[in-house]
Amino acid sequence: MICRRCTHCGLCPGDGSVKEGLIVQTESRNADLVLCPDGFAGNAVGLAFDIGTTTVACRAYSLSDGMLLCSFGEKNPQVAYGNDVITRISFSMKTDGLKELNSAIVTCVREMISRAMLVSQGILAEKRRGRAELKKIVVAGNTVMESLFNGTSVSSLACYPFIPESKFGVEIDAEKIFGSEFFAGSCK
């Protein structure tokens, strides 16, 4: 069981509710957080993405035991539309601006999923765990980056009182964002 206090770690829907049967492994020095639900097969893979203004980071974990399979980063392709969130908010309000920013980051994350799963497949095959199956994706970032990833307008953040149109901590079917090519079963 995990704590009732919400720290927006991605383990609850954002309300601090407890999910039974979850084990959380943490390293206090690196602040690493790994979700290891009971019942995942040895070939189940989870990916964690941190979408930053300049960099997108990816980590792949074995969901059965929390083993880090790979970790890497890429330049955020949205930099082509502006180096900071203010410029990107401004660009998103142009005709098709939001669509372009969303497409750029979703394409980047899709490519990173392919790379992470390829590396994970090699590691899991070495350990004789079977073919890697993507089961969970967690995406985090600041309000603007998460909104652009979800294709949610950020125009309300351009002026006072700076209230986002969407609250986060929601689960979305990954196939709706990325298509079905990566997923053997359901993935959120």
Walk me through what this model shows:
This protein is α+β, with helices and mostly antiparallel strands and 188 residues long. The protein is built from four helices and six strands; from the N terminus they run βββββααβαα. The protein has helices at 85-92, 97-126, 143-150, 174-178; strands at 24-27, 32-35, 44-51, 55-62, 68-75, 133-141. The strands form two sheets. It has a four-stranded mixed sheet. The chain has a two-stranded antiparallel ribbon with strand order 1-2. The longest helix has 30 residues, at 97-126. The relative contact order is 0.16.
State the share of residues found in helices, binned by percent: 25-40%
Mean pLDDT: 79
CA(first)-CA(last) distance:
20 Å
In terms of DSSP E residues, the strand content is 15-25%
The strand line-up of the biggest sheet is 5-4-3-6
Mind telling me the C-alpha Rg?
A: 17 Å
Strand tally: 6
Structural class: alpha+beta
Question: What's the main sheet like?
Answer: 4 strands, mixed
How many DSSP H or I helices? 4
Q: Which spans of ≥5 residues are poorly predicted at pLDDT below 50?
A: 1-11, 18-33
Globular, elongated, flat, extended or rod-shaped: what is the shape? elongated
Order of helices and strands: EEEEEHHEHH
Properties at a glance:
two-stranded antiparallel sheet, four-stranded mixed sheet, 22% strand, 188 residues, alpha+beta, elongated, disordered N terminus
